[in-house]
Amino acid sequence: MTRPPLSRRVSGLSALELAQLLRTAQAVGAIDIALGIPPGTPPSAAVAGAVEALRSGHHQYSDPAGLLALREQVAADLLATRGAQVDPESEITITCGATEGTMMALLAVTDPGDEVILLDPAFETYFGTVELCGAVARRVALRNPGWRLDIAALRAAISPRTRAIVVNTPHNPTGRSFDATELNAIIGLCCEYGLTCITDEVYERFIYDGRPHVSPLTLPGASAHSIVLGSLSKTLSMSGWRIGYCLADPEVTAALRKVHQRTTIGASTPLQHGAAASTASWWNDVDEVKQFQHRRDEMANSLDQMGFEVSVPEGGWFILAGTEGLGVPSDELAARLVTSAGVLVAPGTAFFAERAEGRRWIRTTFVRDHELTVEALERMRKLLG
Ligand SMILES: Cc1ncc(COP(=O)(O)O)c(C=O)c1O
Fold first, then answer.
1. pLDDT band of 41, cuts 50, 70, 90
2. Is any ligand 1 atom within 6 A of the Cβ of residue 223?
3. Could you state, in order of their start, the residue ranges of all structural domains in the chain?
4. Sheet holding 346-347, edge to edge
5. Nearest CA to ligand 1 atom 14
6. Most buried of 27, 68, 189, 323 (most Cβ within 10 A)?
7. Which of 256, 265, 239 is nearest to 64 (CA)?
8. For 109-144, what is each residue's pLDDT tens digit?
9. Which of 102, 172, 232, 317 to mutate to test the pocket of ligand 1 (most atoms within 8 A of CB)?
10. In the 8-state DSSP scheme, what is residue 224?
11. How far is the CA of 102 from the centre of ligand 1 (A)?
């Protein structure tokens, strides 16, 4: 039997390394300090709201732009936390997570063959999403020490085919929280060359040491050049609910909604009701951020003592730790840690364009169950000691 061919688009994609990791961790029962799975449960008001929505018959399609009550909740939160005035009617679209938001943004601003600039390293899914859109990814390396944005390199990567720059802040996997100088420079390039800055801000609340979160949303002159992606996955510990949002000016929002109507039609109706039922205080759990900051310090110290090269993350949920000092490439180290210590860490190969560069880093998260994380670090210390 000859099978019909699969698309070139899909054939060029590899399976996500992180999805494979999840299966490995479950199969061997390892302690997982690799994946950014939210540690808590959604607010009880959200769960009650979703149950109530199911019981009271909210089972069908709803407004593809998203439930107005939820868009209003997002707008109220943006005003309270960032002083940003965003119109829920014409500038907010509820998505199936920031993952769908990324796809929508890229499909709305690129044509096949156009170029999209990604930072290197980057969240694993971006590269494949750019490819699925038929666009071409150009990677611009963040510079060490400190994973700084190299504006000259960014400018040099812009070609007549460039349409967008994707920035994730706070950044997965490095923990950088890009500052106003960096973001202003990116927006400046977008204005100069007519590009869109797509910012993935799913970790916007998780910033440490009193730093502010800087977003194009509050930068002057950015609005026509910016699509901001947000998510409730991490903020409200509801990654399985698949609820996120896209923010853009009305013209871009109209384009995003055309895509959204064809990708998913809309996010789940009853779960949007649930998310809308959670109150603003749940959206700003300052204690959780303080706890994560403390755990970040614990993990950074402990990895440093084991001989990893660590730059302390400014935000987000992850530490990208260098393995060169240990003399072992990260993929070998990760395999040894799973089999000999029952600890799952993510090899850096998932995040870098060049495999050789990825083999110099592992990514760990400090947000999972605290006791298990302490145990995982102790097991690593014993194995490496
Ligand atoms: C940088 C980044 N963007 C997007 C996502 C996925 O977000 P969502 O669950 O809203 O699709 C993740 C999840 O780990 C992430 O780390």
1. very high
2. no
3. 8-41+285-384, 44-283
4. 309-310, 318-322, 361-365, 346-347
5. 36
6. 323
7. 265
8. 999 999 999 999 999 999 999 999 999 999 999 999
9. 172
10. G
11. 10
Six-digit token string for 41: 């449960």
In ligand 1, the atom with minimum distance to the C-alpha of 244 is 10
Dist. CA 18 → ligand 1 center (Å): 12
What is the per-residue pLDDT across 290-347, written as a single tens digit (0 to 9) for each? 999 999 999 999 999 999 999 999 999 999 999 999 999 999 999 899 989 999 999 9
Residue type at position 83: G
Q: Ligand 1 in contact with 175 (CB < 6 A)?
A: no
- Alpha-helical runs (H) found in the chain: 8-11, 17-28, 44-55, 68-82, 97-109, 125-132, 151-157, 180-193, 232-235, 250-263, 269-277, 280-283, 286-306, 330-336, 355-358, 370-384
Nearest C-alpha to atom 12 of ligand 1 is from which residue?
Answer: 202
- CATH number of this structure's domain 44-283: 3.40.640.10
Would you state the pLDDT for residue 1? 77
Q: State whether the beta carbon of 25 lies less than 6 angstroms from ligand 1.
A: no
How many whole angstroms separate alpha carbon 302 and alpha carbon 380?
10
Q: How many residues does the chain have?
A: 385
Report, at the CATH architecture level, how domain 8-41+285-384 is classified.
Answer: Alpha-Beta Complex (3.90)
- Please report the pLDDT score of residue 48 as a whole number: 96
> Terminus-to-terminus CA distance in the chain, angstroms?
55
